[in-house]
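Holo prediction — 3-methyl-2-oxobutanoic acid.
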Amino acid sequence: MNVPEFKQRKSQGEKLVVVTAYDALFTRIVEQAGIEAILVGDSLGVVVQGKANTLSVTMDEMLYHTRLVAQTAVKSLVIGDMPFMSYQASVEDAVRNAGLFLQAGAAAIKIEGGNQVIDRVEALTRFGIPVMAHIGMTPQSVNQYGGYKVQGKEGDQAEAMLADAKALEDAGAFSLVLEAVPVALAKTITEHLSIPTIGIGAGPHCDGQILVLYDLLGLFDDFVPKFVKPYAHLKADALQALSRFKEEVECAKFPSDSESYH
Ligand code: KIV
């Protein structure tokens, strides 16, 4: 999957499926499942590093995980998520840091924000760096919202979000993530854009959906937003396996003859 193919799916009426991945093992599993687009999300700050939010994730950490995913992915579109303060201070920062993601193997980058990042999106696009934009509840602005809250519920907020979406498309973004946005607003935005919208907590009318891998596998349950559907319960399975291992070691049932060399 490349960027033009990703964009084309909208006109072909085919839903786009995107998940996050942060390492080689899960990248292989995601590809075996036939999923063709992977975001190396800064959500790794929460699900891998155990932090309360994504704000402390660094460029070095993101590049390390992007390399792990990109070196493993054979056919998926790999998108690197630009961490907090890697693009906010200046257009120059945005271009330089985005370039590092492409050198690490990503084919595109994602940045959060609407109106305030238009000049970044224009510059990145001009220099051949495809941009996935991200509006609605953007986690890097969690302190401004006072928590992870649905955005765009009020009329003027909704209008501003639609205007941001159009401006991001005009600036050259190849797709747009809509996070925690009311269904009707996400539908309107999707209908007004020619680039695909990728929803996370934005209802069924988006052109595609993304979930954080550890949420959809039921591995991470510290905080489960309403929009998450766990398709597996790997944490429960892991707990069961670990307690069986502990029990069997304690009662000398493991290792048995079949796990021993002679
Ligand atoms: O960091 C991330 O995983 C994301 C997705 C949830 C869209 O930004």
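READOUT: The chain has a mean pLDDT of 97.
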